Amino acid sequence: MTPAQQILIRESWAQVAPIANTAATIFYxxxxxxDPSLRSMFSRTDMASQRRNLMQxxxxxxxxxxxxxxxxxxxxxxxxxxxxxxxxxxxxDTVGQALLETLAIGLGDAFTREVxxxxxxxxxxxxxxxxxxxxxxxx
Length: 139
Description:
Strand content: under 5%
Oligomer: single chain
Mean pLDDT: 94
Low-confidence stretches: none
Number of helices: 6
Number of strands: 0
Distance between the termini: 29 Å
Largest sheet: none
Helix content: over 70%
């Protein structure tokens, strides 16, 4: 991830943060549209709390974007927890797509090709860390 991509993530996040609840609602709506089977994983979840958790987690990622190695242990723990919820490797692609589509909706014209690539890169790095940690549980 380049310093320029880190800047793009911070700048775009600054535009999303004020509409955090709306963005989180869009994210989960898109997630469940892309894969309706995922809805059952949230059947006992307080979605208002879940939306807050998502946006807080993304906020931590953005704040740490220039030093992701510092949050790797927390991201690994998140991956292990998600394995316990039944999250499978293929779900990470769906989540990534829902995230990018949410950002596209929330940012509008500000969601340039460069911003998309920056977020896709960051998501790919973190999803890889989570998947590796989750795979340790399965092994």
